[in-house]
Amino acid sequence: MTESKSNTITSVVKDYSRRLFGFIRKRVQNEEDAEDILQDVFYKLIGNTEPIEQISGWLFKVARNKIIDRNRKKQFGSTDSFFADSEEGDAAEWMEMLFDESSNPETIYLRNLFRETLKEALDELPEEQKQAFILNEIEGISFKDMSTTLDIPVNTLISRKRYAVIHLRNRLSDLREALLNN
Question: pTM of the prediction?
Answer without folding.
Answer: 0.48
